[in-house]
Give the backbone structure.
Amino acid sequence: MSAVRPVPPAPPLALLDRWLALAAGRLLLRRPEDAGLRRLVTAYQPAADPRALAEWIAAASVGLFAALADHPEREPLGRISAGCGLSGFDLDLLAFAVLPCLSEDGAATVAELSGGARRLTLGLALKLLFGDAADPVAVRAAVRASPLWSSGLIHPGEAARPTLERRLDPTESLLAGLDGAVPAQVGEGWRPRWVQPQPRPTESIRRAAERLAAQPGICVHLAGQPERAEQVLAVVAGAAGALVLDAPDDPQAAPPWAEAQVVRLGTGALVALRTDALQLAAPWFGADGRPVGGAAAPLPIIAPATFILRGPQARLVRLEVGANDPLELSDAWRAALGLDQADADELAGRNWLDTDAPRLVAAALLAAPATGARAAGLEEVLAEVASLTPPRALRLATRRTPQVPWGRLVVPVETRTRLADLVRRVRRRVTVQLRWGMAAGGRGRSVIGLLHGDSGTGKTLAAEAMATRLQLPMLAVDLSLVVSKYIGETEKNLAELFAAAEGFAALLFFDEADALFGRRTNVQDAHDRYANIEVNYLLQRLEAFEGCAILATNLLQGVDEAFLRRFDQVIHFPRPGVAERLHIWRGHLPQGRVAPGVTEEQLALRFELTGGEIRNAAIGAAFAAADGDGVVTGALLEAAVAEEFNKKGRPFPGRPGGAG
């Protein structure tokens, strides 16, 4: 829930007034007849004598800096000074920048001094501060060390100008922050708004808020549903609410890291960025992964699940705040349908659903004649969930509802056992990872398998059988659309693919996976460099993925070794033996159409074929039979098998005991 924050009572501004009066006093030493400056100083130093004025400036400066150091949190100026690490030199320069913005008398004086401009240059400000007594080397060193331009206090564009020509032009974030207020916009068009906490936040939001509060100094990415992410921020912020900066329409707008920190210091609020961009440039980070300088500290980011923080040594902690917490969703399934804990947890694993889904499914099943008043089984519930869930639009993959039953899969026992383990990981992930607290630290709660073996050994069929058993739609990736010759486009396409399958909404299937997940090479030209960037992005994205993905390849040696530890199972599909070939022949020959004397046992013993080759041979012989007398004879089968051998350039075996 977003709201306009009530206007707070005006904070005590004694320090701000004294700070500006000191700046006016320094100018008054140069212009003792200036009536406007005299009005600004009189409340603190009524004497007009220059010597008395100079003594007051010296004493008041010491008192002001002591007050800022003793109680930096009391007023916005104190928070900004402490948070940005400002020295006395920085505060004196900043006062010259702020004075003409908050005082018309000060602005008039500055305009006279600078020939009409209402902003002082750095050179003129230094002249007014030090006269001719300053050491030029020391002054230049102090300017180089000053955080005024890097901390969002002075417009950063001025940092590119020659040193003495820089204008002391404060940002609107600073001017509003000195009053404890929020600017109309931050940086390049980022729009601030307040978010107030709900009266009764859910348990999942409270847990996420605790995890967010436990990550000080690290950039936290709140992924999932943006509105729930805002509520997490509001719970952390408390009754005052959180301040969210919405990204502008311009996708190239730079993130306002420094200015947003000024807003945070001025208002005392928790500030976060919200964007639809897939990546943002990070502030400058040190070797420990933490930001250098308080003003460059990263803020929480609400962004899509595929978001990355771009920059050397940038560290991003991902906090999932999906549509609903799986444990809450499990409770909703149990309440709506009376399911046991295991079945409710399995349904809660489909965590792209919200807590309304169990109620809708229960109502639909109760109204169905086939169900009536009896309790619905898990298969019926999953089928109803599939009917209520609209298909996700995707341009980079073919979406289909698989129809391959698990029993049709003919593979060795070890291979079947490993495939069943992948299915079990999807079904029981909520129980093991969340209820038992065994989620892999720093890694997305994904289930990823690699299937490898010769062409035709059943890898694609196995992926479809898994999707059928899990009652998940299958997204078969179209590599021709994913891989692009343009730099950065492949990564954007992959981000879209992973987002579509996030939350166990579909089984994402990569055939010929070595084309994407191939080995990195030594960089010899630009092509090698950008190919390696794609692989590096995939490695990072798999770490954050929360879904089910199956990869298939004929060339295991072509897959980069760094991927192997990220796979839950690496499953070999060997060429079928005699027993497997017998089952496959029986499953593909048309019943009642095979000539007497032709047996599946003979075919399985005689021809060493893969499952795909057996299927092709059976279909080829069936078409030939349909064009004749409708009987699949041994001769037709031999001709069809011979064609499969010819495709691979293999010699066709002769009949046992005779010439070939």
In short: Confidence is low (pLDDT under 50) at residues 1-13, 286-296. The CA atoms of residues 379 and 512 lie 32 Å apart.
